[in-house]
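Project standup — Tuesday

K.O.: blocked on the structure for the chain from last sprint. Re-posting the sequence here as requested.
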Amino acid sequence: MGICDDRVVIVTGAGRGLGRAHALAFAAEGASVIVNDLGVAQDGSDPSDTPANQVVEEIKAAGGNAVSSNHDVADWNSAAEMIQLAIDTFGGLDVVVNNAGIVRDRMFVNSEQAEWEAVLRVHVMGHAAPARHAASYWRSRSKAGEPVSGRIINTSSGAGLMGSIAQAAYSAAKGAIASLTLVQAAELGRIGVTANAIAPAARTRMTEDAFKDMMAEVGEGTFDAMDPANVSPLLVWLGSQDSADVTGRVFEVEGGIIGIAEGFRHGPRFDKGARWEPSEVGSVVRDLLAEAIEPTPVYGAG
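H.V.: unblocked you, prediction finished:
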């Protein structure tokens, strides 16, 4: 028996890295899995269905249920087709894990429009479109009087929460995902759907080059804190029925660490009760900054 027995789960970007680990972990806990992946390079080029098919075969070899999907999750209609694939194949849908993403690392002053558009499309639309169509399905079930235990699990990043040097587009996209999660949680709770996000630290194609020393593999017999599989147990629990009371949270996950990001809250303020003169503002702002919690430094700043 697994904690996700009879649950139907979609994992996007599941051909490699974190997504593959999530798909395998959900299947091991009894879920039927749609393994979605375009099989592209980390910059979004050269699509192939091979990675998704390989993960499906791994799941089946272990006795699990899975089918592959090469739908473009950032395309509105294609994302809808992926949701329908889950419903048609396994009889329903319970969990959407939005994991697919690309990077185009570059210092902000050198960034190009095409890079921004590509990163924002895959991350932001690639999270919004699948969840939107899943939410429509869950709402229809709720209106029909059927019980709903839906889960949206988004993938943000420390870059989205704190920023990261040479990753302006990626940081902006991941920050948008964190905010999207808050809105989804607030709007969809009434129909039995939770929405949470993770900000993982693990060895993936996106991190191996950017953080070579941190992501280096360790020797046999030593706990490999950067193994993507370390992140997946939290995802599986968030996708289970046990997590029904947890929503609107961003979890930081690294190795054996599970933490909750505490941001997006009001800090110190001062009300004059009237319009400010520009010359008055400086001293008040400096007093407020002295009271405020010092922000976590941007990754890579030194």
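K.O.: great, moving the ticket to review. The chain has ten helices and eight strands. The domain at 8-260 is CATH 3.40.50.720 (Rossmann fold).
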